[in-house]
Amino acid sequence: MDKEQLDAFYAESARLRDVAKREFEERTHGWHFELAPEADQWAESHADGDHWSAGGSTMVERADAAGMIRKPEPGRISSAYSHRDMRTEETTHTGFGFWPAAAEVLIVHAGRAIPLDALEPPPARGDGAAVLATLRLVVESFATVQPVSGPPGAARP
Asked: What confidence tier does 31 reach under pLDDT thresholds 50, 70, 90?
């Protein structure tokens, strides 16, 4: 990348950050996330089903698609960022994000990332309580949020 391309990349990144900040501030509903009342039943069903060993982002995305995570507006929740060990550079935590359907570039990052071991699938089939506990961790991670945008040229999921 030459200097001109690099300057254009940084200018577009700054523009996208500004758009995301504006989209975030325009919303007056607050950023409240919660589990649906029937989330415990869904967790039991998931734990007893064929995909019981799906943990982490896959399980969270399935719960979100099933309506088990109540969001402030239509959109989807998925893995959005990670933390790494400074020495080994291995991923240690996953952070989730919310992509509002009506946003141009806004991604709302959860304020707290979750340790990978807390996102592991339950140790045995039928452990709905473990599935529900993971979903609670994800919802609680959105207690504080921050606006971000994706990199220039990235497609919205």
From this structure: very high
Cα 4 to the center of its chain, rounded Å: 34
Which sign does the torsion angle of CA 54, 57, 63, 69 carry?
A: positive
Closest among 153, 149, 151 to 22, alpha carbons compared: 149
pLDDT in tens, 54-74: 878 999 999 999 999 999 999
Helix axes 128-141, 56-65, angle to 10 degrees: 80
The sign of the CA dihedral 60, 64, 66, 68 is positive
Rounded CA separation 43/61 (Å) = 13
C-alpha to C-alpha distance for 67 and 73, rounded to whole angstroms: 12
pTM for this prediction: 0.91
| 23, containing H or E segment | helix 3-26
Residue 1, pLDDT > 80, answer no
